[in-house]
Amino acid sequence: MLDPLGALTDAFTSFLFGKVETTRLPVRTSTGQAQAVYLPTAAPGLGDSGVIIGREVYSGKGYIYDPFQLYGQQLPAPHWLVLGESGNGKSALEKTYVLRQLRFRDRQVVVLDAQGEDGVGEWNLIAQELGITPIRLDPTAALNGGIRLNPLDPSITTTGQLALLRTIIEVAMGHGLDERSGFALKVAHAAVLSEHEEHGEGAREDADVRPRGGRQPVLTDIVEQLRHPEPASAEAMNVDIDDVRAWGLDVALVLDRLVDGDLRGMFDGPTTAGIDLDAPLIVFDLSHIDRNSIAMPILMAIVGVWLEHTWIRPDRKKRIFLVEEAWHIINSPFVAQLFQRLLKFGRRLGLSFVAVVHHLSDVVDGAAAKEAAAILKMASTRTIYAQKADEARATGRVLGLPRWAVEIIPTLTPGIAVWDVNGNVQVVKHLITEAERPLVYTDRAMTESSALPTDEARAISLAADAEAEARAEAIAMERQLRDESSETVA
Question: Which of 48, 279, 367, 402 is the 20 to 30 A CA-CA neighbour of 33?
Fold first, then answer.
């Protein structure tokens, strides 16, 4: 009870200002209990302009993402890394993303399709639907009218050609070129270009079109120059001609594999005419290449540099370069260095590089750890599907993910992923339309024999989705209660 003086003071205050509210004693409780008095809230999205991916699991809001719309405001770079175990939805995400991007008229997409089924790449159905013929690189078919890509294509600058030749040789040898071998390659390349320029056929530093007349210089010309170097090149450095020949022997042997070995036919001739670089979608089908052979990183290097000089142009188009099995790039220091330049150069011209990798440990612990870190740093968007707990913790450390996201990754079900867009971390359910479904699911060999009737399959799919979302919400609630149970409010 109040003392007489306090009661008199309250009476006088009430007379002047009206009734005074009842004084309540403080109540101590936990934030876990007190949170019920607050309205539900959700983290802000990425805006409403771009391509819809699906919906956020916790809030149910639509999740919209477009690196071209976000670049410069929420994204420092438009490049994207997709991670996760096989069978969790990476491929479906890539395909629906491309199909939806192509609805914009100013979009162009190149896909390096490294996986296949039934003798064709897994992007074959989408290419057919869009009326596009994939560019199938196959060493067994190259000699019979197959596709060729020429590392010495005159549309590639002289500097680009030499850098590409060095990369091919270094990847094949597994180490960098020493100064003497590098000199032998340089003088052989210069001699070949000089010979062709006399006939108006050589590459020019400022050329971006293929010169007319005559044939393109090819790898066979480089091999011949290495075997029989020009005396003038030796005299210029005041060395013996036999020394120059000896320095270039290992280089010649490596290039001979591309000319007359197991990779014969794909790179040892003029670039195949008729490749449409203005098509909205360009698919390089690499499914006939052994993914574990040295051919894959060599091929990716050639395709990447060739596209840099022939496809990327300052024409205001937004371009997407999607690479499956991208660890062949990130795990090779020589190929990674080429792609670092491509990413930096392409960013100014509207290029978004999308790298799809199964395990981050495949690259961060490999021979190209430094180069891999640089490329990963450029990827401001990271999408992580389900991984084992150990792999999830390693991924979280490298990418700087919050603890709750690392804990939830091993529990994710197919179609649900953690999205980190420059620090904005959400759990997103990828949605696929009925029109897209037959185009994006390519594991027919595993699913056709056990196919269910459409209605039953849809019911099971919906039930699985509901269960997955409920599980994710339960984990989030448990995390929140655990983190806040020790806190109190007055």
Answer: 402
